[in-house]
Amino acid sequence: MSIDKRKLSKEILLSLVLGAIIYFILSAYNVMVKTSGDYRIALHNTLDLGLLGMLSIVVMAVVVYVCTYHGDLVFKYRFVIAVVAFIVCVILGINGSSIECMYACFGSSVDTNVVAGVSRPIRSDEWAVLTPLTMSQYYGHGFSYYSEIVRGTSTDVFIEYGTPIRNLIMIFRPFQIGYLFLPFANGLAFFWCGRFIALLMTSFEFGRLITKDNRRLSLAYAVMVVLAPAIQWWFAINGFIEMLIFSQLSIVLLKKYMTANNYVIRTICALFISVCAGGYVLTMYPSWMVPLAYAIVLLAIWVIIDNYKECKMTVKDIPVIAIAFVIFVAGMGYVFVNSFDTIKAIMGTVYPGARTELGGANFKRLGLYVTNILYPIYGLSPEANVCECAGFISFFPMGIIMYIIYTIKSKKKDVLSIVLIILSVFLFLWCSLGFPQILAKITMMSLSQASRTIVIFEFISLIQLIRSIHLLEEYDIKEKYIVLMSALITAIVVGMTYIVYIDSYPKKEVWLIISLVFFVLMMTLLSLKKKYSNICIIYIILFMFVTGGLVNPVRVGSNPMTDIDELKAVSNVVENDSDALWAVEGGFPLINSPIMVGARTINSTNVYPCIDRWKMFDEEGKYEDVYNRYAHITINIIEDSNETERFELVQADVFKLNVSIDDLKKLDVKYIFTSKEYSQDELELVNSVNNYKIYMIK
User: Fold this and answer.
1) Please, what sign has the CA dihedral across residues 154, 160, 164, 169?
2) CA angle 128, 171, 78 (to 5 degrees)
3) CA 264 to the chain's CA centroid
4) What is residue 47's predicted lDDT score, i.e. its pLDDT?
5) In terms of Cα–Cα distance, which of 697, 675, 665, 685 is closest to 593?
6) Preceding omega of 594 cis (within 30 degrees of 0)
7) How far is CA 560 from CA 184, 315, 687, in A?
8) Which is nearest to 200 in space by CA: 531, 499, 541?
9) pLDDT for the residue 185
10) What separation in angstroms does the CA of 483 have from each of 11, 395, 521, 523, 524?
């Protein structure tokens, strides 16, 4: 077959041009993120092309060329490409952890290999809690269900925060398995990249399900999910990524189970649905689990209604379903038995305890997602912090309005849209008005704060938007109507947010830029069946990358904590005296640094309270409301503990413990890690590194 050289040259030239444009946009954006929005520095650094820049343009041009002109090939081998990309990322140790912030606590100048973006101090529950807890599992008894390092006593590290353990139950937490056989840096890459790629792929397959295999629209949906601000700002903790992976995958597998006649395929689907169910339960974060569970149930009902005529169930299905059910029940039963005391302790705490929410008071935040594109650059949001305000770019309420237009125009109804709208109304009422207490408890929404439910509401709104666009695609909408509709949608969506948050962003040029980029985004979404659809996809990817792509840094590898001189000194002591208990004088996040090198630290973040330990100083239970909680514990060493309050509540998840050296002896503490200098006879200076010292209690 002869090659049309002219056509090939044109394609290559266009790919190079697009590759260069993409490079300049991403490069400038990366500099703006690092400089908090200084566009002058961004332009200067971007235009100063070097060899690396030229290579990047070529790589991007190749990607554009392959995806644009050989999309069918990419689709055919998408799972192979995903696996290869995952393996490469794990080998290179690519992750998005902000662990650099822990180095910064010590003033360390260790190179943390950030190649793009910046570390986010606000994500302290990742870099200062989850990551240190995970690192601690490499020490002691090595990936045991109960750790002696965290809290300095036997601690269930599986159920809360979910650190990796060497146990078959890990089939329900597959993204942490890499830690069990890989060095920490590569295990971290396994965790970060595995979840990113899995969410992208499952979202694409789910998109194909709700759009009847419209691949471009499915890709747009997948990108709008995986790069959504809500996903990226909460990427490492609370199991949100796992929830979306397991929920979407279970719906896709349910459809496959119902339409497949091969019982090998049906068995595989049933087993994976069982794993998805177990994984979902083990995320252990009701604030998102409960509202999202409603979506799973309603989507499952839709799949059943849509496919029951094709589904031919026989006696053979009984053992398949039974085995899957037994695996789920056995797994959850095992966890419940092993973690019963932990669950009981957590439910009995003052914080977080057993929630009783009534919802409401969050109506104005329903359009807050519009401002999300500003967060990665400035790190600020109109309300609370950027994490609390992060959402999905859902264009609410346009998905519902577009469906109404479709029903009027076609005289037809769509079961999925009806199901989604019913759920949207339910969640809308919870977020904006709230429920009476009895209704909140019956629906179990009492376990979910309205501010958290908004994220699920936006996710449902995004699904509705994609579904409505798909339904309207059966009509060949002319370009002029696309422009008109996009302008109207942008005016409504951005206008509503402008009215509410004008005081937070008073500069009108900011709103003009927001309006422009949202206008173009809406046009591209409505133009995915046009001949220039590939350009539309590129814009959608760029828009979402700017919105969420550099929320977390892109880091290659993670240097060991022993590269920090202060922790190297702690590590040396631990090697010779691994059973000794430590106390850290100071606050969060310093309290979690010794566990990263295996030191058994009594005041490392207590993910659930150690009541018996604190009762030693509070026999009458006077301060139980202070220490009976999830807590970061600040220890303050004083001469006479009788002269001050023993326990002081600093905030909901922080309390201060005022203790003397004699008190620490009662707690069996042997070593103190502190920045203070002491000359008491009871203390022997073991080591002094920079501003920190290690004392041994005689």
Assistant:
1) positive
2) 90
3) 33
4) 66
5) 675
6) no
7) 8, 55, 20
8) 541
9) 92
10) 27, 16, 11, 6, 10
Q: Decide if 133 contacts 143 (C-beta within 8 A).
A: no
**Of residues 601, 665, 609, 668, the one with CA closest to residue 147:** 601
Q: What span, in angstroms and rounded, lies between the C-alpha atoms of 511 and 499?
A: 11
Q: How far apart are CA 209 and CA 204, in angstroms?
A: 9
> For each successive 10 residues of the chain (698 residues), what is the average pLDDT?
73 86 85 79 70 82 85 92 96 92 80 84 93 93 92 92 92 96 94 97 97 93 96 91 97 95 92 96 93 96 91 89 95 95 90 85 87 88 86 92 91 93 96 94 94 95 95 84 89 89 81 91 87 86 92 85 86 94 93 95 94 90 92 91 84 92 93 91 90 92
Neighbouring C-beta atoms of residue 440, cutoff 10 Å: 19
First to last CA, the chain: 85
8 A C-beta contact, residue 683 and residue 583: no
Q: Please state the separation of Cα 30 from the chain's center in Å.
A: 21
Contact yes or no for 358/446 (Cβ under 8 A): yes
161-171-80 Cα angle (round to 5): 110
Query: Which DSSP symbol is given to 159?
Result: S
- Predicted TM-score of the model (pTM): 0.94
Residue written as token pair 């429920």: 435
Question: Using CB atoms within 10 A of its CB, is residue 487 exposed (0-12), middle (13-18) or buried (19+)?
Answer: middle
CB 510 within 8 A of CB 373: no
Distance CA 669, CA 601 (A): 9
Structure-block tokens of residue 546: 């700017």
* Amino acid (one-letter) located at 653: D
Q: What is the largest CA-CA distance in the chain?
A: 92
- Token pair, residue 524, equals 């591209």
- The separation between CA 207 and the C-alpha centre of its own chain, rounded to angstroms, equals 20
Question: Are 468 and 402 contacting, i.e. CB atoms less than 8 angstroms apart?
Answer: yes
User: Token pair of 511, please?
Assistant: 């709103």
* Nearest to 158, CA basis, from 331, 322, 328: 331
- The shares of helix, strand and coil residues in the chain, as percent rounded to the nearest 5, are 60, 10, 30
pLDDT at 336: 94
Work out whether strand 683-689 and strand 654-659 pair parallel, antiparallel, or are unpaired.
unpaired
183 three-state secondary structure = coil
422 phi and psi angles, rounded to 5 deg: -60, -45
pLDDT of residue 110: 67
| Angle CA 354–355–356, to nearest 5 | 125
What is residue 280's predicted lDDT score, i.e. its pLDDT?
96
pLDDT for residue 312 = 85
Residue 485 structure tokens: 């509709």
The label of the residue with tokens 């004088």 reads 585
Q: SS3 for 276-303, per residue? A: HHHHHHCCCCHHHHHHHHHHHHHHHHHH
